[in-house]
Recover the amino acids of this structure.
């Protein structure tokens, strides 16, 4: 089991993949790793908000447990 | 007393008149509708095609936002729909409708409903331009 | 650039969707509609029936007001209709529709259009109440 | 020929007639005469606006010529 990081919309376009699987760590470290693997994410992540298992995540120092899903949401553009 | 008549995240064509019919009431003297339609241009560039992507939580969040607006304003009923997937030029992406006893509350609530949907609902717009480029709106 | 798509003082049933269709444009990203409907109550009294009387100058004045709104706001098209004669509960007395590139101008222009119609157009409302009394609204 | 005074909506209800015919005089004097004939008009006229031959009339000291039409409009109540 690992952490699933899901990318949406412009974040998916930057990553080039729908999701990646990484080891449990802080949310911050997981996102840094994701950006190291998919460099274009580096420009998009600072604007993004995050959901940890569908709940808004503000504190990125929180440890994301194995089996969790971390969603990467670019700035909303509905309407 | 205020009520959410409907909140829909849908791939179907949105009918303003059908949504408006949901909020009707003989006690309501005012119905205000907003239809946000797909335009053929954006910042001076010609738009060829357009689609929206919705996060799985969008439906639940739309219901929540509609409920907040219904609670905050002196309205009778509110309803709102956001479309996703491919949308043709001229078709509606977002429709918000509000009925109220008096027109000021109807206008104020409809403005706020549209503002909150745009701020709070995880939906994203992708545009393809006539020059061959494309973009996810608001995303560097 | 702004345009009056229609201004109607009419005894016919007003269709919001037909009036809204008049202001559509592929360059307009927002359509706001207002429908002022006849209510079954006024200041807590039950309304049985209702009619409006229009002065012969009402049609020309409605065209003038619509033109002023079209000129004042950053809108694409405006249309407005006011009904007179007998109107059934739930039917529209006044419908105002505005299309614009952006939603703020559409909302602002629609609010102003309704305000100006109420202020400037010589039309009067007569209400018959369930208790057998009647009144000309706003007239001592 | 005379001046035609037309009553609308609540003014008509107060007058009890659609219109009356009076001799040329100032608008003010014509309206005073109308209120003398139809006393309920006295309460309504102070709220009314006027059209002289379809043009807004503000100055009631103006002489209304024979053949003219003076419209009595209660406060508007459209919408």
């Amino acid at each position: 089991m690992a952490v699933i990081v899901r990318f949406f919309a412009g974040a998916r376009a930057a990553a080039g993949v729908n999701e990646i699987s990484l080891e449990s760590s802080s949310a911050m470290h997981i996102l840094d790793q994701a950006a190291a693997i998919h460099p274009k994410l580096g420009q998009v992540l600072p604007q993004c908000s995050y959901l940890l298992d569908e709940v808004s995540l503000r504190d990125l120092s929180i440890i994301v447990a194995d089996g969790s899903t971390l969603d990467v949401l670019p700035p909303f553009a509905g309407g | 007393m205020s009520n959410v008549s409907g909140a829909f995240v849908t791939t179907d064509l949105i009918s303003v008149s059908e949504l408006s019919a949901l909020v009707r009431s003989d006690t309501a003297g005012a119905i205000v509708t907003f239809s946000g339609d797909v335009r053929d241009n954006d910042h001076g560039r010609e738009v060829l095609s357009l689609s929206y992507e919705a996060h799985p939580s969008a439906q639940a969040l739309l219901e929540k936002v509609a409920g907040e607006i219904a609670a905050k304003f002196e309205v009778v009923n509110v309803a709102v729909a956001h479309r996703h997937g491919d949308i043709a030029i001229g078709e509606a992406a977002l429709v918000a409708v509000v009925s109220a006893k008096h027109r000021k509350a109807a206008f104020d609530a409809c403005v706020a409903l549209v503002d909150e949907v745009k701020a709070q609902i995880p939906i994203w717009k992708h545009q393809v331009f006539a020059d061959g480029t494309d973009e996810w709106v608001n995303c560097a």
Remarks:
- The longest strand of chain C covers residues 45-54.
- Residues 16 and 59 of chain C are 19 Å apart (CA to CA).
- Chain C has a mean pLDDT of 96.
- Strands of chain C lie at 3-10, 30-37, 41-42, 45-54, 77-83, 85-87, 92-100, 123-129, 134-136.
